[in-house]
Write a structure and sequence with these properties.
With 162 residues, the protein is an all-alpha fold. The protein has nine helices and no strands. The chain starts with a helix and ends with a helix.
Protein backbone atom coordinates (compact mmCIF):
# COMPACT_ATOMS: atom_id res chain seq x y z
CA UNK A 1 0.00 0.00 0.00
CA UNK A 2 1.36 3.38 -0.98
CA UNK A 3 1.46 6.21 1.57
CA UNK A 4 -0.08 9.48 0.33
CA UNK A 5 2.53 12.20 -0.29
CA UNK A 6 0.89 14.63 2.14
CA UNK A 7 1.34 12.36 5.17
CA UNK A 8 5.10 12.97 5.06
CA UNK A 9 4.48 16.73 5.02
CA UNK A 10 2.14 16.53 8.01
CA UNK A 11 4.65 14.46 9.99
CA UNK A 12 7.51 16.84 9.11
CA UNK A 13 5.42 19.81 10.27
CA UNK A 14 4.60 18.01 13.53
CA UNK A 15 8.28 17.24 14.14
CA UNK A 16 9.24 20.88 13.50
CA UNK A 17 6.56 22.05 15.90
CA UNK A 18 7.60 19.47 18.52
CA UNK A 19 11.25 20.51 18.31
CA UNK A 20 10.25 24.14 18.78
CA UNK A 21 8.20 23.16 21.82
CA UNK A 22 11.20 21.25 23.18
CA UNK A 23 13.29 24.38 22.68
CA UNK A 24 10.79 26.37 24.73
CA UNK A 25 10.48 23.70 27.45
CA UNK A 26 14.10 22.59 27.71
CA UNK A 27 16.20 25.36 26.17
CA UNK A 28 16.99 23.39 23.00
CA UNK A 29 15.69 20.30 21.19
CA UNK A 30 16.20 17.15 23.25
CA UNK A 31 17.83 15.42 20.27
CA UNK A 32 20.74 17.88 20.44
CA UNK A 33 21.20 17.38 24.16
CA UNK A 34 20.93 13.60 23.99
CA UNK A 35 23.30 13.30 21.01
CA UNK A 36 25.94 15.28 22.92
CA UNK A 37 25.60 12.87 25.84
CA UNK A 38 25.80 9.84 23.56
CA UNK A 39 28.99 11.18 21.96
CA UNK A 40 30.62 12.20 25.26
CA UNK A 41 29.79 8.92 27.00
CA UNK A 42 30.45 6.68 24.00
CA UNK A 43 27.36 4.57 24.67
CA UNK A 44 24.40 3.36 22.62
CA UNK A 45 20.90 4.80 22.74
CA UNK A 46 19.80 1.61 24.50
CA UNK A 47 22.33 2.13 27.30
CA UNK A 48 21.38 5.80 27.65
CA UNK A 49 17.67 4.92 27.71
CA UNK A 50 18.26 2.35 30.44
CA UNK A 51 20.29 4.86 32.46
CA UNK A 52 17.62 7.54 32.20
CA UNK A 53 14.77 5.12 32.92
CA UNK A 54 12.91 5.25 29.60
CA UNK A 55 12.42 2.68 26.89
CA UNK A 56 14.67 2.83 23.82
CA UNK A 57 11.66 3.66 21.57
CA UNK A 58 10.70 6.55 23.90
CA UNK A 59 14.26 7.90 23.78
CA UNK A 60 14.20 7.66 19.99
CA UNK A 61 10.89 9.54 19.83
CA UNK A 62 12.25 12.30 22.09
CA UNK A 63 15.42 12.58 20.02
CA UNK A 64 13.60 12.70 16.68
CA UNK A 65 10.96 15.17 17.83
CA UNK A 66 8.08 12.74 17.47
CA UNK A 67 7.45 13.21 21.20
CA UNK A 68 7.72 16.59 22.92
CA UNK A 69 8.07 16.10 26.65
CA UNK A 70 9.79 13.91 29.17
CA UNK A 71 6.87 12.73 31.26
CA UNK A 72 8.64 11.75 34.47
CA UNK A 73 10.46 14.25 36.70
CA UNK A 74 13.02 11.60 37.73
CA UNK A 75 13.96 11.00 34.08
CA UNK A 76 14.48 14.74 33.54
CA UNK A 77 16.52 14.85 36.75
CA UNK A 78 18.74 11.99 35.56
CA UNK A 79 19.31 13.74 32.23
CA UNK A 80 20.37 16.94 33.99
CA UNK A 81 22.57 14.94 36.38
CA UNK A 82 24.32 13.26 33.45
CA UNK A 83 24.85 16.58 31.69
CA UNK A 84 26.36 18.09 34.83
CA UNK A 85 28.72 15.18 35.50
CA UNK A 86 29.67 13.89 32.06
CA UNK A 87 32.82 16.02 31.87
CA UNK A 88 34.37 14.12 34.78
CA UNK A 89 33.95 10.75 33.07
CA UNK A 90 34.69 11.49 29.40
CA UNK A 91 37.42 9.25 27.99
CA UNK A 92 37.65 7.00 31.06
CA UNK A 93 35.58 3.85 30.47
CA UNK A 94 35.51 2.85 34.16
CA UNK A 95 34.40 6.36 35.14
CA UNK A 96 31.64 6.26 32.49
CA UNK A 97 30.38 2.90 33.78
CA UNK A 98 30.41 4.20 37.37
CA UNK A 99 28.60 7.42 36.37
CA UNK A 100 25.92 5.51 34.46
CA UNK A 101 25.32 3.21 37.43
CA UNK A 102 25.11 6.16 39.83
CA UNK A 103 22.66 8.05 37.64
CA UNK A 104 20.56 4.94 36.95
CA UNK A 105 20.12 4.41 40.71
CA UNK A 106 19.31 8.07 41.46
CA UNK A 107 15.78 9.29 42.10
CA UNK A 108 16.11 13.03 41.48
CA UNK A 109 13.02 15.21 41.33
CA UNK A 110 13.62 18.03 38.89
CA UNK A 111 10.04 19.17 38.30
CA UNK A 112 10.69 22.14 36.02
CA UNK A 113 13.46 22.23 33.46
CA UNK A 114 16.07 24.83 34.32
CA UNK A 115 15.49 26.56 30.99
CA UNK A 116 11.90 27.31 31.97
CA UNK A 117 12.38 28.56 35.52
CA UNK A 118 11.46 32.16 36.13
CA UNK A 119 11.18 34.28 39.25
CA UNK A 120 7.76 33.82 40.91
CA UNK A 121 6.85 37.51 40.50
CA UNK A 122 7.47 37.53 36.77
CA UNK A 123 5.77 40.66 35.37
CA UNK A 124 4.99 38.88 32.08
CA UNK A 125 2.36 36.75 33.84
CA UNK A 126 0.64 39.85 35.17
CA UNK A 127 0.82 41.56 31.79
CA UNK A 128 -0.83 38.56 30.16
CA UNK A 129 -3.66 38.63 32.71
CA UNK A 130 -4.07 42.38 32.17
CA UNK A 131 -4.62 41.80 28.46
CA UNK A 132 -7.60 39.60 29.33
CA UNK A 133 -9.25 41.87 31.90
CA UNK A 134 -8.98 45.25 33.54
CA UNK A 135 -8.02 45.84 37.20
CA UNK A 136 -11.62 45.88 38.50
CA UNK A 137 -12.52 42.66 36.72
CA UNK A 138 -9.34 40.95 37.97
CA UNK A 139 -10.15 42.06 41.52
CA UNK A 140 -13.74 40.76 41.27
CA UNK A 141 -12.43 37.43 39.93
CA UNK A 142 -9.99 37.30 42.86
CA UNK A 143 -12.86 37.85 45.30
CA UNK A 144 -14.80 35.02 43.65
CA UNK A 145 -11.86 32.61 43.87
CA UNK A 146 -10.73 33.61 47.36
CA UNK A 147 -12.60 30.90 49.29
CA UNK A 148 -11.55 27.87 47.25
CA UNK A 149 -8.39 29.01 45.47
CA UNK A 150 -6.53 31.59 47.59
CA UNK A 151 -3.25 31.34 45.68
CA UNK A 152 -4.98 32.08 42.36
CA UNK A 153 -6.90 34.91 44.01
CA UNK A 154 -3.62 36.38 45.23
CA UNK A 155 -2.14 36.17 41.72
CA UNK A 156 -5.15 37.98 40.26
CA UNK A 157 -4.93 40.70 42.95
CA UNK A 158 -1.24 41.26 42.14
CA UNK A 159 -2.11 41.52 38.43
CA UNK A 160 -4.85 44.00 39.33
CA UNK A 161 -2.33 46.04 41.30
CA UNK A 162 -4.13 45.56 44.62
Amino acid sequence: MEIPWWEGCVEADAVRRNRELQRRFYGEPLGDRLRRLLAALGVSQTVLADTLGVSPPMLSQLMSGRRVKIGTPAVWGRLVMLEERVGHATGDRAAVVALLAEVRAAEPRAEVPLARRRPPDDDRSYELLRTAAGPDELARAADTLDGGFPSLASLLRRAAGR
